[in-house]
Design goal:
Elements (H helix, E strand, L loop, with lengths): L1 H7 L2 H25 L1 E3 L7 H20 L8 H5 L1 E5 L4 E5 L1 H10 L4 H9 L5 E3 L9 E3 L5 E6 L1 H9 L1 H10 L8 E8 L6 E7 L10 E5 L20 E3 L14 H17 L6 E8 L2 H6 L3 H12 L21 H6 L8 H9 L14 H5 L20 E3 L3 E8 L7 H13 L10 H14 L3
Parallel strand pairs: 9-10
Antiparallel strand pairs: 1-4, 2-3, 3-7, 4-5, 5-6, 6-8, 7-8, 9-11, 11-13, 12-13
Helix pairs in contact: 3-6, 9-16
Length: 449
């Protein structure tokens, strides 16, 4: 008896330690489910997976650092699959040169991209109130999202990658989510996982005080808000936004037009059920002042049209004709109090169409927007995520269109018929792509001013 007790004694601390870890992990899981965002440390179920993802991404990005991306992409680049074998897994990278070229067009260096995705800091997991079964990871700086996808969704993205890139080339200030990489990881004894890397719409998120997922309908589009002052992250929905407006003043017409262009593009892909992500934060006093300064106008105009700050064609002139390359000479001719924003925008809109030369190819958007080049002369904020940020007089808005993988299949048509019977007279998400596009455009028009 004593012998048995003595023999069991050394094992007791280990059992107690495991029990404490389980209780701690269970408590943290409950807490993290409330917070929605938490660190994937060594005790987390996804720690091993995310370490492999980091290692695989580091090697894949290093290849594009060591081998310059070709100036002209070929069909082979769009269909390229590169497999790298690691100690405990293999990682496949799809269309690597295409995404590397796109990242460069966004003004992002490969070293910067690698540093963010592959730093020693742990990834973060985001648990939302979305019905999606995907796993969402954020880089520690919250700049990039990594999201698991099923094989069907990945095949759809890769099949339409060329026209997606053509759309962003033609409309470089598009609100569509920016996909930056597609990968597949194979771990012995586990199912292979596909995942995508994309730019976070809500970056930087330091002062964001409300987040919304908008589909332009009413069924199941309400989320219980958190108490005031709570640190819980909840993504609100359409009905939560009732009575509010996106207040942009002069930039409102740009937003309405761009949402129409982007949703028309998704309609051509026969896609529905995508979301307009929306968040806002109050502008600081100095940020509101900068909107009116002439120096800020020069910086923002250059960022809007300079290749390397916006995904425009390499032959684009650095600055529109009305704004000189040398900002100092302009500043010397103006008072330091700045120029009225109205005058600045008039100068920008009257600049020559050389700002964004027409790319090869044409689509239905051209008929709907004869002067589409004007759509590419928006004044972008001088931030690392300018394409998804629009400043109004008092608020900064983060806006992007995400989840563009749901095709209007036979199954979705049946779901549409069933929902019509279940929710007579009410609007729901499963409708034809054309109806979905028109309805979301109408929502933006009704909720902006």
């Amino acid at each position: 008896m004593a012998t048995a007790a003595a023999a069991g004694a050394p094992g007791m601390p280990a059992l107690r330690q495991r029990s404490v870890k389980r209780r701690r992990w269970g408590g943290l899981r409950q807490q993290w489910k409330l917070l929605g965002l938490f660190e994937i440390d060594e005790q987390h179920e996804f720690y091993s997976l995310t370490c492999m993802m980091k290692e695989g991404l580091a090697a894949a990005i290093q290849s594009t650092i060591d081998t310059p991306v070709p100036t002209d992409l070929s069909d082979e680049d769009f269909s390229l699959e590169v497999t790298k074998i690691h100690k405990n897994f293999t990682m496949e990278t799809f269309a690597g040169p295409v995404f590397a070229s796109f990242r460069g067009s966004l003004g992002m260096t490969e070293q910067e991209y690698q540093q963010s995705l592959c730093s020693e800091n742990c990834y973060l997991q985001f648990i939302s109130n979305s019905k999606s079964k995907a796993d969402f990871f954020l880089t520690n700086d919250k700049r990039f999202f990594l999201k698991t996808q099923n094989k069907r969704e990945i095949k759809f993205l890769l099949a339409n990658l060329k026209i997606y890139m053509e759309h962003l080339k033609k409309y470089p200030h598009s609100l569509l989510v920016k996909f930056l990489g597609v990968h597949r990881i194979r771990i012995p004894g586990s199912r292979k996982k596909y995942f995508i890397v994309m730019q976070s719409v809500f970056y930087p998120d330091d002062r964001i005080n409300a987040r919304y997922d908008i589909k332009g309908c009413e069924v199941s589009r309400w989320t219980e808000p958190t108490p005031e002052g709570s640190q819980i992250i909840v993504v609100l929905k359409d009905l939560n936004f009732d009575g509010q407006f996106i207040t942009l003043d002069r930039q409102r017409s740009w937003l309405l037009q761009q949402v129409e262009i982007d949703t028309n593009f998704l309609c051509r892909l026969n896609v529905l059920d995508y979301s307009l992500l929306l968040a806002h934060q109050p502008l600081h006093h100095d940020e509101r002042h900068q909107n009116l300064s002439f120096a800020s106008l020069i910086v923002r105009t250059k960022k809007s049209v300079h290749p390397g700050s916006s995904p425009v064609h390499a032959s684009v002139a650095a600055v529109p004709g009305a704004v000189l390359e040398d900002g100092a000479s302009l500043l010397s001719s103006e008072s330091h109090n700045g120029l009225k924003l109205a005058q600045a925008e008039d100068a920008l809109s009257s600049s020559s169409s050389q700002a964004c030369p027409e790319p090869a190819g044409s689509g239905c958007e051209t008929d709907q927007l004869p002067d589409f080049k004007a759509q590419n002369r928006r004044l972008l904020p001088n931030l690392k995520n300018p394409l998804h940020i629009i400043d109004g007089p008092e608020q900064r808005y983060f806006i992007g269109i995400i989840d563009i993988f749901t095709v209007y299949s036979f199954k979705k048509r049946l779901e549409h018929m069933w929902k019509r019977l279940r929710h007579p007279g009410r609007s729901f998400s499963t409708v034809s792509p054309q109806t979905y596009s028109l309805r979301l455009c109408q929502w933006v028009q009704d909720h902006s001013k």
